[in-house]
Amino acid sequence: MTQPLPHVVIVGGGFAGLWAARALRTAPVRITLLDRGNHHLFQPLLYQVATAGLSAPDIAAPLRQILRRQENVEVRMATVSRIDADARQVEIEDATGGQRLDFDYLMLASGVTHDYFGNEQWAAHAPGLKTLDDALDLRRKLLLAFERAEAETDPDERDAWLSFAIIGGGPTGVELAGTLSEIARHTLSGEFRNIDPARARVRLVEAGPRVLSSFPDDLSRKARAQLEKLGVEVHTGVPVEEITAEGYRRGEEFVRARTVVWAAGVAASPLAQCLGVPLDRAGRVKVQPDLSVPGHPCIFVAGDLAAIDRADGRPVPGVAPAAKQMGRHVARTILARLDGREGTHFRYRDYGNLATIGRMAAVVDLGAWRFSGMLAWWFWLLAHLFFLVGFRNRIVVLLNWSVAYWTHQRAARIILGGDDRSDTK
Amino acid sequence: MTQPLPHVVIVGGGFAGLWAARALRTAPVRITLLDRGNHHLFQPLLYQVATAGLSAPDIAAPLRQILRRQENVEVRMATVSRIDADARQVEIEDATGGQRLDFDYLMLASGVTHDYFGNEQWAAHAPGLKTLDDALDLRRKLLLAFERAEAETDPDERDAWLSFAIIGGGPTGVELAGTLSEIARHTLSGEFRNIDPARARVRLVEAGPRVLSSFPDDLSRKARAQLEKLGVEVHTGVPVEEITAEGYRRGEEFVRARTVVWAAGVAASPLAQCLGVPLDRAGRVKVQPDLSVPGHPCIFVAGDLAAIDRADGRPVPGVAPAAKQMGRHVARTILARLDGREGTHFRYRDYGNLATIGRMAAVVDLGAWRFSGMLAWWFWLLAHLFFLVGFRNRIVVLLNWSVAYWTHQRAARIILGGDDRSDTK
């Protein structure tokens, strides 16, 4: 009888989880990868599903398919309800009921969700964008707003349906605002008989002093200028204090907008609280330099859920490259431990920071080299195509983008979930 | 002051409605095209969305986009709640409320939905396939069944989750059964650790004596042989008498099957009843030879909702070419009336009958020329690509099919609507 292989449980099939599992492909371990859904999602392009440029399957691939040749992995579609760090057990739930899994190593990479800073009642009026289902709901909401405006006979109501607000000037907010403005001004041009979609107002509202605050000042300014050129009204410096079905209040002003999107705050997956260790303000786990959890050297946290600083004191950003690096680092640490060695400290390699804004508009910060506009947009586009998982997905996305570029059309302007339209009321 | 243009109201943006609207593009009329959804659907490929081969937007295009250059059309996303044939009014409802529209000509092309022959309680256990939302629900149900089987520890339950039944041996049932068998035997191969998906049983149940009964006898037999070669168990001659969450009863036998799909009956859109004219057993309108409604020469019915016989007494089939021909014929009749002429009788031009079964398996009946197998499959494939609306859609579908052909993979194996998995219980 040989001894059973050490069991590595990975929670979350995002960039951190998937890259960790892959990095352990030749390791003498058995791996269980747990995810609520059945797919790995290429989150950087999620806003394009929401804005009808891509289909959901274009940016996602089944985890089982990606990992089917890796025989030491078992993929399970389940939610994790509890973690018992001392007993080294996770409690999972799926359609067959609940179950406890013992683990020798645990990597928690369940990510973040949107946060309304204590104003959970805003969620009903200003949905966020984290999952494919969020993206399809948002697509539906955006497309139905124009339908509703077309059907309205009252001019004030019509204007309210043609008024869109994106709350939060980070990368997601900027992408959504720029793309939505393009849709209104170009894609829908000539399709309506009672409204001119180009009259739609798209407001991007940021509480801080500038958009894309993770970028240097000059690129923030360029991003703002590019947004304004695309027709977006950018409002910075004053936070939103109230969101209702009618619009939002910002300082003294109440702005009517039937469609408000939340792209402002993130909160960590509540699972982090099970660990009983210090969390940062957003609920992320303050990990040790090797990404393990204080007091539990066999439990690691990676991806957006991990709070860790770089050598210069700035935090490691919640972006895909950081998540992949963390996932691989945890895998290396587990391999080292299995060999009786100590793991090393995680060091984030910053390859640069990209954000797209809209057609031919983007900003790129590669440290020494910063640029914006058309060149930055091509750079963003090629980088994202390159990193997209799956050969087919790359070709389909490239094709959809090419058609969108030449025709201003968007491939996925299909309203789904359509039998009950009561939510447009 | 010129006289207002005659108002043509078209209900339904399917093949009949869209082709009628297009055929009236130079006519001195104003057209209102009403549809519940925002898109035209290429229904012949709907089963491929359900079986995860294509994305929803691949087989649909926004009606507004298709018709945006045709200035005499207004597209409205609304449901029709009532038709007052004598007053020449339709009552519509959208998110802004209800409204009455006067018409000079009306074409009703609201299609058919599935029918459970009075057993509406079966709908919960055996969903049908008519809309994109149906297709996404079915995709989810099929993919979750394998997930559920993988998670089950009880062998009987596991078998029940690996047992699939398609009720109805028409083209949709045959397509679904053949494709599902391919998914189980090839696509999912090697992806699960606790089950062998190839052990899944796919049963196709037809009450009549043969599958594809609209085809000649020899092609029916060939279709059955091809299905069996793909691994489908074909059961004919005995109707299903009961469907529950556990399976179905057929004669003396209760077959356990957690996933049952309804592809058996169609019933006409209930709007037909508003007309107060004779309907056939399925609720379709028995139209006059010019497709008008008895007693209402300015009201026409086209597409699947119209019941009309060919010269040889056989009914015109409910297929896309017939719907297009009817739509164009109604347009021509309206043009003739505007010119003070009488319309002609509708004559269905039968270009043949195709049905696909699965990989390299199909049957084609072109009257004098009948064939099956690989050649028929290529013929089906090219014909469907050719008729798909939109250049982009054709390329994406071709690409998805090519990848599926070479790799056995399917592009859209993404479970959506995933936060609540209670429906798998």
From TrEMBL, chains A, B:
Principal EC category: oxidoreductase
Transmembrane segments: 369-391
A UniProt-annotated Pfam family: NDH2_C
Any GO MF annotation of the entry: NADH dehydrogenase (quinone) (non-electrogenic) activity
SUPFAM superfamilies membership: FAD/NAD(P)-binding domain
Keywords, comma-separated and alphabetical: FAD, Flavoprotein, Membrane, NAD, Oxidoreductase, Transit peptide, Transmembrane, Transmembrane helix
The External alternative NADH-ubiquinone oxidoreductase-like C-terminal domain, residue ranges: 352-402
InterPro entries: FAD/NAD-bd_sf, FAD/NAD-binding_dom, NDH-2, NDH2-like_C
RNA-binding among keywords: no
Catalytic activity entry: a quinone + NADH + H(+) = a quinol + NAD(+)
EC identifiers of the protein: 1.6.5.9
Residue ranges occupied by any FAD/NAD(P)-binding domain in the UniProt entry: 7-327
Family according to the record: Belongs to the NADH dehydrogenase family.
Protein name: NADH:ubiquinone reductase (non-electrogenic)
